[in-house]
Amino acid sequence: MPRAIRGVLIECEPAIKSILIHIDNTQLNNDAIIEDLDETHLMVKEQMVKTLQARLDEKLKETYRVEVPLDDSDEDKGM
């Protein structure tokens, strides 16, 4: 008999979707994503959304570089 799985539709950019799939494959034992629907949509198990979001936040913090503002000293010199 078929079983229903409660899921959440996630819409995101293809780059983020790729990271989510990688996280599911490597860290969550393929337990979060129910179905890869198209280039920008995934169906994810409802109980795994927060876990997946937390892992994505961690991954993005590893790769995100904060831009350092330029020194204002050039403005003082009349440039």
Automatic annotation (TrEMBL):
<dbReference type="Pfam" id="PF06331">
    <property type="entry name" value="Tfb5"/>
</dbReference>
<keyword id="KW-0227">DNA damage</keyword>
<keyword id="KW-0539">Nucleus</keyword>
<comment type="similarity">
    <text>Belongs to the TFB5 family.</text>
</comment>
<dbReference type="InterPro" id="IPR035935">
    <property type="entry name" value="TFB5-like_sf"/>
</dbReference>
<protein>
    <recommendedName>
        <fullName>General transcription and DNA repair factor IIH subunit TFB5</fullName>
    </recommendedName>
</protein>
<comment type="function">
    <text>In NER, TFIIH acts by opening DNA around the lesion to allow the excision of the damaged oligonucleotide and its replacement by a new DNA fragment. In transcription, TFIIH has an essential role in transcription initiation. When the pre-initiation complex (PIC) has been established, TFIIH is required for promoter opening and promoter escape.</text>
</comment>
<keyword id="KW-0234">DNA repair</keyword>
<dbReference type="InterPro" id="IPR009400">
    <property type="entry name" value="TFIIH_TTDA/Tfb5"/>
</dbReference>
<comment type="subunit">
    <text>Component of the 7-subunit TFIIH core complex.</text>
</comment>
<keyword id="KW-0805">Transcription regulation</keyword>
<keyword id="KW-0804">Transcription</keyword>
